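Sharing a chain and its predicted structure for anyone who wants a worked example. Both blocks are below, sequence first, tokens second.
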Amino acid sequence: QVQLVESGGGLVHAGGSLTLSCAASGRTLSSYAVGWFRQAPGKERHLVAYISSNGLHKTYERSVEGRFTISRDNAKNTVSLQLNSLRPEDTAVYSCATRSDPDYCEGYDCYNQQILYDYWGQGTQVTVHP
């Protein structure tokens, strides 16, 4: 049984940093692309960062480019999301999910196709106070 478990969320002030981790059991993450998504209250869930299975291709939502960094640790079977220079508008539940690398499209809209992600974690809350 595949399980994804996120950790590392919390409460920070604007300008602060957090490191989120997505740990997998029952699946080798290095064989799959991984997306980090977030959903703020009253808003739709959307992709914030994506990393391909080989770790060579990364894509970010425009609002987080330069502040968030996605990375893999294959030895630990985890994918992390480093959140720097946090803003109140980054407040959301952050979830990770896995999918196969797409071979027919690329770019943010392609990687944001949530129906193509087969396993999802429960999410971790990130709250940023002004």
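Comments welcome. The mean pLDDT is 96.
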